[in-house]
Amino acid sequence: MSEKFVETKFYKMPQGELLNLESGLFLSSLTIAYETHGSLNKDKTNVILLCHALSGDAHVAGYHVADDKPGWWAPMVGPGKAFDTEKYFIICSNVIGSCKGSSGPNSINPETGKPFGLSFPIVTVKDMVNAQKKLLDFLGIKKILSVAGGSMGGMQVLQWVKEYPEMIMSAIPIATTYKHFAQQIAFNEVGRQAIMADPAWNNGDYYGKEAPSRGLAVARMIGHITYMSSESMDAKFGRSLKNKELGYEFATEFEIEGYLGYRGDSFVKRFDANSYLYITKAMDYFDIQKDKNLIDVFKGVSSRFLIITFSSDWLYTPAQNKELVRALKMNGIDVTYCEIGSSYGHDAFLIEFDEQTKLIKHFLEKTFKTL
Amino acid sequence: MSEKFVETKFYKMPQGELLNLESGLFLSSLTIAYETHGSLNKDKTNVILLCHALSGDAHVAGYHVADDKPGWWAPMVGPGKAFDTEKYFIICSNVIGSCKGSSGPNSINPETGKPFGLSFPIVTVKDMVNAQKKLLDFLGIKKILSVAGGSMGGMQVLQWVKEYPEMIMSAIPIATTYKHFAQQIAFNEVGRQAIMADPAWNNGDYYGKEAPSRGLAVARMIGHITYMSSESMDAKFGRSLKNKELGYEFATEFEIEGYLGYRGDSFVKRFDANSYLYITKAMDYFDIQKDKNLIDVFKGVSSRFLIITFSSDWLYTPAQNKELVRALKMNGIDVTYCEIGSSYGHDAFLIEFDEQTKLIKHFLEKTFKTL
């Protein structure tokens, strides 16, 4: 490990300020956990904002002291990597609604001294972006060379372009969608129902007591099925058994069952069930188009785009992204679209580093040159 | 309603007989609920066996007295229909493990006088077929003109051909698979976990008490997502809201959420959670191939095949069925394969009646003529 240790920092919104939310409500206290990698140049023109997915956090790369696992996109962020920390100043912040340091349902409500639980207001992807904007204002950053992210991170990318087009030189939405379609809402809703069906959930009021772990584990298992492709599941597990012979019992018998169980159980140790509700809801609300024609959404936008999809991603499909490409092109926007051939399904953005690196590196260099 | 009322009949295995199961265990008492439509001809050569899917039952067509809903495949079974009751003698029986009249976990264990619950032995698709075979023996039927069914019904079709090739003149597997692949097991397993996570499940011992309804509802919701295509969900629901405006709350907001909730809630009124565990497990065990080459499985088979798939069925895909077609053809078996263009996903076998009717009617007539 030649890379330096990184530390999560915390931005606190000054007292008196508010974060207005799409719902009409507001947050009067706001904390944002964030990390930075690399150095800001004198002109502040080398800023890259990385946005994380549903279960991600601010810890995008490098190591925390006393931790043997690097950040969630470590192979993509570092010296000489796709997001080259010798050239660029990388910022990654935890979304609001999460449980990884930024304000969310497990934060202490200053008015009661207790965790918010369900009294935390519903947040949207637009709210997440506006919270990040407060952090950038605090850091004195007025231009973003590129905003990039996969899955829900990609939704934030699109929202950034829509809200602050003049700030964004370029955008890299990866394995994402311009709105949540019915099937995507359906999968999230079933996950939420699994959590809310757990008696330990107790209407969100379980902090300091038993957490709704079984419900959250089921929700995560559903999620995992959508993150893999049928093909990759088959290649990895097929019909392999945990033991030599079938036991004819309801215990875990197939490898795939064991894998899902393991994924579910390990998730509940690191994630809060209420945050799962809040963040999936934010994704379901996501619709960059709303009642508009998709083409009109991007009127006046001049940010360059690199859109990356994966051939076997059946959650956020290449087909959905091609509609986005078309809408951008109809606005004369400079768009590069690349569908990477991969059998890894949606998870590919966390696996297929070589091709992503080549595409992104080149795209960022070209963008930087146009400054 | 010009059609006659039908009545469910019950076959009871004679005392002293056993139904040996694939697990090595056996059932010493066995009831099979079944219905017949049409009349058996003198030579007993006009028998069609219809096999139902996961949540189906023996009530395939016509009306029960005092019931305003016809059987589950009513548009396909009746005078002049695909399975023409003026020509053929139709038998449909409820699978063992179910809760619709045949022996299953909610049956009374004669040894204890209480419902079996989890002490009911695990059953497989082969066991279901062997139970049906007892019924056919009882009815004195030695030849089956055709065995047909969709989804898990199609698995029984393939198993019938494998177990009793000499009895089966023809087979019509619809919207099915020759084995459960990892993703199919994964969806079932998550459903089972949702049920078993419900404290009311109580290790299967809940009869006479509160049933694990919330867990079963979640399981059914997951199932429903896999029964529809993303396209049909989008056409039917899209991002439509139940109310005019977003409420920014965890209550049902999108139409698709309401639909899934409704499907879940109505299912728990008519289905037993333990049966859901047993039957999904039987499906997961289904693997007509086992350790064999798929081609070798069908050696010596001379039954004619009509295999029907639906273009948007992503649960049991056309691609999987083409592997089956190939294996049959390599044995010189007479196979007609038809992929019906439909946006309805897996559910299409319960929706697309016109094309299925044409295909099946013609296929049955031709089979009947070869006698």
UniProtKB/TrEMBL annotation, chains A, B:
<keyword id="KW-0963">Cytoplasm</keyword>
<keyword id="KW-0486">Methionine biosynthesis</keyword>
<keyword id="KW-0808">Transferase</keyword>
<feature type="active site">
    <location>
        <position position="346"/>
    </location>
</feature>
<feature type="active site" description="Nucleophile">
    <location>
        <position position="151"/>
    </location>
</feature>
<keyword id="KW-0028">Amino-acid biosynthesis</keyword>
<dbReference type="GO" id="GO:0009092">
    <property type="term" value="P:homoserine metabolic process"/>
</dbReference>
<dbReference type="GO" id="GO:0005737">
    <property type="term" value="C:cytoplasm"/>
</dbReference>
<feature type="binding site">
    <location>
        <position position="220"/>
    </location>
    <ligand>
        <name>substrate</name>
    </ligand>
</feature>
<keyword id="KW-0012">Acyltransferase</keyword>
<dbReference type="Pfam" id="PF00561">
    <property type="entry name" value="Abhydrolase_1"/>
</dbReference>
<comment type="subunit">
    <text>Homodimer.</text>
</comment>
<comment type="function">
    <text>Transfers an acetyl group from acetyl-CoA to L-homoserine, forming acetyl-L-homoserine.</text>
</comment>
<feature type="binding site">
    <location>
        <position position="347"/>
    </location>
    <ligand>
        <name>substrate</name>
    </ligand>
</feature>
<comment type="pathway">
    <text>Amino-acid biosynthesis; L-methionine biosynthesis via de novo pathway; O-acetyl-L-homoserine from L-homoserine: step 1/1.</text>
</comment>
<feature type="active site">
    <location>
        <position position="313"/>
    </location>
</feature>
<dbReference type="InterPro" id="IPR008220">
    <property type="entry name" value="HAT_MetX-like"/>
</dbReference>
<feature type="domain" description="AB hydrolase-1">
    <location>
        <begin position="46"/>
        <end position="350"/>
    </location>
</feature>
<dbReference type="GO" id="GO:0004414">
    <property type="term" value="F:homoserine O-acetyltransferase activity"/>
</dbReference>
<protein>
    <recommendedName>
        <fullName>Homoserine O-acetyltransferase</fullName>
        <ecNumber>2.3.1.31</ecNumber>
    </recommendedName>
</protein>
<comment type="similarity">
    <text>Belongs to the AB hydrolase superfamily. MetX family.</text>
</comment>
<dbReference type="InterPro" id="IPR000073">
    <property type="entry name" value="AB_hydrolase_1"/>
</dbReference>
<dbReference type="InterPro" id="IPR029058">
    <property type="entry name" value="AB_hydrolase_fold"/>
</dbReference>
<dbReference type="GO" id="GO:0009086">
    <property type="term" value="P:methionine biosynthetic process"/>
</dbReference>
